[in-house]
Write the structure tokens for this entry.
Amino acid sequence: MTYSDRVTDILNEITKANINIEFLSRQLVQSVGDSVTQIRVKAYDYLINKKLAHDLGIWGIKINPNIFLENETLDELCGNDIREVKKGDEHYNPLSQTYGGPPYRAGDKKVEQMRADFNKVKKDIKELLKREKVAEKDFLKGSNK
């Protein structure tokens, strides 16, 4: 067995273990969690698959569903300290993003996309709460940030 095969086998086993942990976690939440906790799990599942979650993580912003309900815009979430790198600026790349912040720096097209993604995620979380008949205040109150 080659080194590459061993690494592949280890990664496959880790993936299987993660799937089992996720399954058991869901079962636990469904059996003992209240409806708000169950909805919170759905919201986190949704966020995990969003590029925006990764992008905000690059800036060091901790991701949870509440940040989309507690802030009207991406700019508000970032303390109005987003610096867009624009055409003509040194090292311009419209889709670039730097690590850390504030200030939070990214290319103008990247910021535009992140703003649109923020608004979509916010809308989708609000729709989830509405569909599940949970008030925002109850969801936020039951928070464990």
